[in-house]
Design a protein that fits this description.
This protein is mainly alpha-helical. The chain has helices spanning 23-40, 42-63, 112-125, 127-137, 143-149, 161-165, 169-193, 202-226, 228-233, 236-256, 262-276, 278-288, 294-300, 316-340, 349-373, 375-380, 383-402, and strands at 7-8, 14-18, 69-73, 108-109, 407-408. The chain folds into two domains: 7-73; 109-408, no CATH class. Helix content is 61%, strand content 4%. The two termini are 59 Å apart.
């Protein structure tokens, strides 16, 4: 380097500083495009090489003698930092019982055994919805387990449905190992995370978490009975995501708009949630190439026959029906929540996190990853039963972990010098 930063240059009232440059950013973009070219194709590779070399050249140029530095003028003497005047004093010592003494949170944690017990208990109960689906759908009890083994065994996407429905000892052992290992790992994650997660307000736990699950589940069952065509056309993981967006937006208005009456809060919250709710559905339809109006037409299919109409095209009558239905249900649900939320019993935060939110995140992650890694298996999985199984796992694991023993975390420091042992001292353990 031509000189150290912040070094005052003789004869100038300035400081020598590194010259601003976009070279690191350009080099990073080139490296990213080069890596993406391994998947996207040779075009990305070529562009990545060009951008990387250009960024590298810019960076090398800044390292040449006499380059890469500028002289930054010093501030006026009156605006420069003044000398620090020391003040004789003493910092107050923190003692047990004083605010700020404990600097290690949370105060209590669950032992590793609690997470293992929760994971194993949930592993026993979690397959029940999937097995019930296999029996009633005609696939049998081995279908879901064989699909699960497809996470590590290659070639399962090439098997026929009949082959996936049959018992296979290798598939069974592989699926069982995957199921138990993942269950135990997630159980241990629950044991570590649940005590550390922030509390969820009562209204938010009901309105933004549980209510969308109930609404989404009821919609799934009703469409299967009333209109199987609409039922098969809906992407249910994305549908459940829209319910959560609605629930969060609606509940925030219902809880925060204290200056309005409950009915007005419900109407405003329902309208806001209804406006934001379609965003994931539209993104999904655009991403899959079905078009902007596909989810609108599916919604209209709740009341209108859809067999003889193009679901990807715009239909004015369907658009009007879908708009009225969407806003009507959104407002009605918002008003119902505004009236009922203050009267409902609180949901423990650990149960809301572990039994509802974390399974939803895991489901969305599994759906997205499978769509990239193995689209054939993604299409064969019955996602509503998969989602229900995740919720069963989350509830059971959260309940077991919540009811398990806890160990107090010793705070930092040793408390008062020379004092007797107390709960503020390191090494205090119970449970």
């Amino acid at each position: 380097m031509a000189g150290e930063p912040h070094e005052k240059t003789p004869g100038h009232d300035s400081v020598e500083m590194p010259e601003p440059t976009v070279a690191p950013l350009v080099l990073s973009v080139g490296m990213a495009m080069l890596a993406a070219g391994m998947i996207a194709g040779p075009a990305f590779l070529l562009v990545g090489v060009v951008v990387l070399l250009f960024g590298l050249g810019l960076w090398i140029r800044n390292l040449l003698p006499g380059k890469g530095h500028i002289h930054e003028a010093l501030a006026e003497p009156a605006k420069r930092p003044q000398p620090i005047r020391p003040v004789v004093g003493k910092v107050q010592e923190l003692r047990p019982g004083m605010p700020g003494y404990r600097v290690r949170l949370p105060e209590k944690v669950h032992p590793i055994s609690a997470g293992i017990k929760g994971g194993l208990a949930a592993a026993l109960v979690m397959p029940i919805p999937v097995l019930i689906y296999g029996v009633f759908s005609g696939h049998g009890i081995w279908y879901a387990g064989n699909l699960l083994s497809g996470m590590v065994l290659p070639g399962l996407e090439k098997l026929s449905v009949e082959e996936l429905e049959a018992f296979n000892f290798g598939f069974f052992i592989t699926g069982l190992i995957i199921h138990v290992v993942i269950s135990v790992v997630f159980g241990m994650i629950y044991g570590v995370l649940l005590p550390t997660l922030p509390a969820i307000p009562q209204a938010m736990a009901w309105g933004a978490v549980l209510a969308p699950v109930v609404w989404g589940g009821a919609t799934y069952v009703l469409t299967a009975m009333v209109n199987p065509t609409v039922h098969q056309g809906v992407s249910w993981p994305w549908f459940f995501l829209t319910q959560f967006i609605y629930g969060i937006a609606m509940t925030l208005v219902v809880v925060e708009a204290t200056g309005l009456s409950p009915i007005v809060r419900g109407i405003v919250g329902g309208l806001l949630g209804g406006v934001l709710m379609p965003i994931p559905a539209v993104l999904w339809s655009l991403g899959t190439g079905t078009g902007f109006f596909y989810p609108v037409n599916l919604l209209a299919g709740f009341l209108l026959p859809v067999a003889d109409r193009d679901l990807t095209a715009f239909h004015a009558d369907w658009f009007a029906v879908a708009t009225v239905l969407h806003l009507g249900v959104s407002v009605a649900f918002g008003v119902a929540c505004a009236l009922l939320l203050p009267k409902l019993r609180p949901i423990p935060s650990a149960l809301a996190w572990g039994g509802i939110l974390m399974p939803m995140l895991w489901t969305e992650t599994s759906y997205s990853l499978m769509g990239v890694l193995n689209p054939v298996l993604q299409q064969r999985v019955d996602w509503p039963s998969f989602i229900l199984a995740q919720f069963v796992f989350g509830v059971v694991a959260a309940v077991v972990v919540m009811r398990s023993e806890q160990i107090e975390v010793p705070p930092a420091g040793t408390g008062a010098p020379g004092g007797p042992p107390d709960k503020g001292q390191a090494g205090w353990v119970t449970g």
